[in-house]
Amino acid sequence: MAARLDGRQLASQIEARLQSAISTGLEHAGRPPGLAVLRVGDDPASGVYVANKEKACSRVGITNHGAHLPADTPASTVLAAIERLNRDPAVDGILLQLPLPAGLLEGPLLAAIDPTKDADGLHTLNLGHLLKGEPGPRSCTPAGVMALLVAAGIELAGKRAVVVGRSILVGQPMALMLQAANATVTVAHSQTTDLAALTRMADVLVVAAGRPRMIGAEHVKPGAVVVDVGIHRKPEGGLCGDVRFEEVEPIAGAISPVPGGVGPMTVTMLLVNTVTSWCGRCGLENPLADLLP
Ligand code: NDP
Question: What domains are there in the chain, each with its CATH number?
């Protein structure tokens, strides 16, 4: 039976480190870290995600500077809100919650975020820093996966890793992070032929295809580490991932569950990026640097 890559447990351990870093640095900094989650419109799933992020901020001592704008807000007003947050010295991290309402283009708005306050790590400049192995905020979901692998003591150097999915949000930065950890990485996508033959070669398989329960026992080498990034609401209620957990768990060496795997780590890495930015702005040594791949 596979070991469980427990994201809830690791997230709460990292939250304790965040709390301690904030309380230790508070006097020197003269202010707490600040995160602004900017939400436009009323996408219901976003409402849940934003609430989770705000609760996580208040648990560790990050001030929330978030705003919720109506769905018909013009792009110029959203842009002005981003520019105000860029200038606000109490704000260390900014996150524009996606998806945006129809009619608002996300590209120019994401590009307007000060790259040093890019809590999501998705700004073009920060993706470039990742590519070059330079420090900077890291994309939260793949950084969370790396933290799960490291905490479980999974050796990546020399291992064969396969990432299913090549989005800018998950697959691409995931592949770069695994490669930086000296794994030999292959990226699969919707045009990949004979996916199962490829994934069966993986010592570490990260699945971010956004296809409910597409990966089964036939895709997994016995003993492989399987990380399931997918999140889907089941019609009958509850959540599932991209992996058929009950089929894969008996043969894998380690596996992340859904829920309770990658999801909680994504939120935690948002906090890590924010506190890292706060340390940089306030001249503090960053005690969380080991968490950023
Ligand atoms: P996207 O839809 O942007 O990308 C999906 C990728 O998977 C694409 O590259 C696509 O290929 C590839 N793909 C789709 N179908 C197949 C297939 N049959 N075989 C091989 N590859 C395939 O999704 P995201 O990357 O944004 O998200 C992926 C999943 O992760 C979603 O379920 C999402 O909800 C979840 N997610 C979870 C998070 C968390 O915190 N746990 C955070 C972010 C996302 P192509 O490029 O050719 O189209």
Answer: 31-114 (3.40.50.10860), 140-263 (3.40.50.720)
